[in-house]
Amino acid sequence: MRRVLLVDDSAAIARQLRQIVEGSGRYTVAGHAKNGAEGIKLVTELAPDIVLLDLVMPVMDGLQMLRLLHQRHPEISVFVVSSVGAVAEKVSEALKLGARGVLSKPFEPETILRALDNEG
């Protein structure tokens, strides 16, 4: 079963993503980080296959984490989780930095699972 790391400062969003990801029966949530710095630490500890990454977070934002993650672990697939309209330029930069795609809030479970399935 593929392992997913959630990196989002919102507990409510993380809960929603966990329900979608684990409810599929095809993935397990390896952990949840509240910012990019925690996310980098958990990537090292938990070795996830996929990271669902918010862009706007305290301490270390998603773009900073994505840069580090791409340098250290290019094999990990990263999907940006974002309200696209609010941070369109950051989303564009994230895609240039190697994010596989953008999962827009509010979430459609089918869209998220289809994106994850395509990484298999």
- Return the CATH topology: Rossmann fold
In CATH, the homologous superfamily goes by the name Response regulator
How far apart the termini lie comes to 10 Å
The oligomeric status of these chains comes to: single chain
Number-wise, the strands total: 5
**Percent of residues in beta strands:** 15-25%
Report the mean per-residue pLDDT as an integer: 88
The CATH architecture name reads: 3-Layer(aba) Sandwich
- Strand arrangement in the largest pleated sheet: 2-1-3-4-5
Binned, the helix content reads 40-55%
Query: The biggest beta sheet, please?
Result: 5 strands, parallel
* Number of structurally distinct domains: 1
Order of helices and strands: EHEHEHEHEH
Which spans of ≥5 residues are poorly predicted at pLDDT below 50?
none
Structure description:
The protein is of the alpha/beta class and 120 residues long. It is built from five helices and five strands. Helix 4 links the parallel strand 4 and strand 5. The mean pLDDT is 88. A five-stranded parallel β-sheet has the order 2-1-3-4-5, with helices on both faces. The N and C termini lie close together (10 Å). It has a single domain, classed as 3-Layer(aba) Sandwich (Rossmann fold).
Key words describing this protein structure:
5-stranded parallel sheet; 120 residues; single chain; 5 helices; Rossmann fold; alpha/beta
